[in-house]
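Quick log. Single chain, no ligands specified.
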Amino acid sequence: MKQSHETNQVLDFQGPELFGTPSEDIIEPVHKSIGYFRHEEQVMQHPLFQRLKFIYQSDVMSLVWPGATHSRFLHSIGTMHVASRIFKSLVRSHLCEMIEDGCKEVSPEQRLAIQYFHACIRLAALLHDTGHAPFSHQFELANAPKKIYEDSNTFGALWDGVDWKEYYKTAPSELNHEHYSVRCAAKILEKTKEIQKQDVLGIMEKTNPNPSDLFCRHAMVLSHLLSPELEKSFNKLGDKRVGLAIMNLLKNLISGPIDADKMDYLLRDSHFSGCLTGVYDFDYLLNNMRIGIEKKHGTPQIFLAINKKALGGLEDFFYSRFHMYSEIYSHKTYAGFKFILSKALSEVLSVPANASQLKYALTDIVQFEKFTDAFFWERFRQHAEKNSSSFCSRLLHGRKLKHIHEKRLPVADNAKKRQEKEIVKLRNPGKHIETWNEAAKFSTIKGPFEQLKLRTVNNGRVDFEEVAGESPFIKEFKDQFKYHFYLID
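-> predicted structure:
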């Protein structure tokens, strides 16, 4: 790819505005108007991305909250929009501080670097969920898919004819939807000329490629904008090390303790379910995000920071997420339908023809294009017609399980033994009891955490502190398991 500043060619994500000017927009319920560029429209029109229209964001949540029929397609576009807003906010806040320090201009080279990184993070966010199979996370828990994911030959078949070593140091021994997202992104971006493919995939989860030479050159240019006084240290690191530092920062904005993915799905699931449990102050958090830069053992570190005054907003975000998992994603009726779904999947995948098609879809990226929720709903109907007492029939007709007990337990090694003890207490002759557990997730921030820090400014001096060290709430709060017990009639 030729650099635009060498050819005077203006790419569609560039232009007179600092972050480029989107050519079109999408109107949707959560963020209202979302602008997009021409090259992003080409990505969205690809069959591997269009398939997300036919995958529910939250598997069978609509059986409990009828409005929750939103798709992975909408969430992916929303995540792109949120990632874009985070990036813009970080750059703008940094530029505002530069102006206060007497710097009033962004050079043409710095503008190009900003626009390139903006384009990369938008694409990474847009493509981050393309690898989700039907019913998303619940599908990965089913036995038949797990066997394929754990098969050492699956990865090679999925990348047949394509050099995967550009994106992975070694072949992963077990796959999940993130690996499929990377494969989908590689396929979708095959003909994209505006941006280096490895730079987009490098921001996505599960990958560890080297940034392109173009990315590294832009990173060196940006290093002066970020911290002129540390530019010498950055230069000593070399282009590649600086490129990796910028790439890791962008990666953290897509998948980190507070990222574009979580920020979108909490608002989106709350909106469509009609439950306000996951709502938090998005704009307040956004306005208090900063790029953190400090030296550690003589080496500059680049990370995401939050102004300390917004610690309460950060705690609220984590607590909203925890409550969304605890009260919505782990709701007794919804959890019961996820149990039914798991059994229905086992019923249809016990049919050899269906199992064969499943393997075909998970080992051939072209066949994966056709693999949506509809693949299973039709087979659920076929199975239900033959067996009215099946789990497929129960799922299709929305017949919920009888919930008889609930237990909250901390995440621990002996959780399974505790679960078995509860079953013994509930067991009576002639009763068939099943359990389903869900994790109520809080935060990965514990002790010294380098990806996110609190920022303070005193008399012009910028300092950073550990989040957990300043927040007893975050330090003490832990993930929990919520166990549900059902009587199967």
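Residues 1-8 have pLDDT under 50 and may be disordered.
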